[in-house]
Amino acid sequence: MNARRLLGALILFGVAGAASAQNTLALRRTARISPGAPLVVADIATVSGPDAESLARVVIAEDPAAQPRDARGWIEIELESVRARLKQELGLPAGMIAMSGSRCDVQIVAPAAAPARDTALTKPSGPAGAESLVSLTTVRGAIANELVRLLRAPASDLRLEFEAADAQTLDTSLTGRTVEIAAVGSSERMPFAVVLHEANGRSLRRTVRVGVLVRRQVATAGRTVERGSTLTPEDVSVDERWLRPGDPAVGPGAAIGSVARRRIGPGDLLTGQMIEPPIVVHKGDRVYVKVLLNNMVMRRIAVATEDGAGGQSIEFAAVSDSRQRFRATVVERGEAVVGPSEPGTLVASDSATAQ
Questions:
Q1: What is the mean pLDDT of residues 96-104?
Q2: What pLDDT does residue 347 have?
Q3: CA–CA dist 53, 57 (Å, integer)
Q4: What structural domains does the chain harbor?
């Protein structure tokens, strides 16, 4: 029995992990790989279970570049071909691994060039990792620590690029000095006001600018999404990008369930301009509205006079008298909430009940 068959037998009989645990494989919608390397399970799927590490290393294609491609230049990897490859390599019965997904579209991408100043969507080569800077007892280290605090991100998820002209200020030691650092604006290169207080009472004031990139998990389109369509988990892929703090990319959680404002192509980075929250309350819907007043919660039925998404404040009308209007914040389908500060709050109603 060769090594691969032995591994398959170990997985089959539970020797490699707990007998009750099951291996799972979820095929991604899209994947991008570098040229010159074989395509392995880890490139196209998320694997979990006691034997995940071994399964992830199984080679699907020794030379991905030789695989057939569609009109877009993408390689289509069907779930059945993955299943067949695992059986061929490990001798596993199909039922021993719980598999999901249907197809992964794979694109071979060349090594990224230095990012353009207006995109910065790939990992840069110039900026320094903040992780190597936060321990410095210099102005440079103090700025790195301030950015970690401001952006609420670990140092390992930040890359900073300082201007060479500021080197003398940045490399000033803080030993025997007190430093004040404050962000004084927002731009592509964040400006910081630096004040150094010497022990003799003298102060030095400088402004330095820092290019900042933050590593974020972002959502990309796993396939074409037409305008007005609601994005499902199958429409959304998770990617990791280096972005500026103000870049409008959205995360997977915000993307799933949202509605496309325009047609979105496969692989497109999803931003707030491309999607919007779904409408959950429509004009004319009868909705239970919770009224919060003086530590009491009252419920009433009201009629929406306009469409609203979750978290949006919209106008409602009383059921008994449509001329009585007030605003409430949509919580979910069929439910809204209004506090005493909302304009036009109505408490008394023949349909209101105290809770």
A1: 82
A2: 42
A3: 7
A4: 3-108 (no CATH), 112-276 (3.90.1210.10), 280-354 (2.30.30.760)
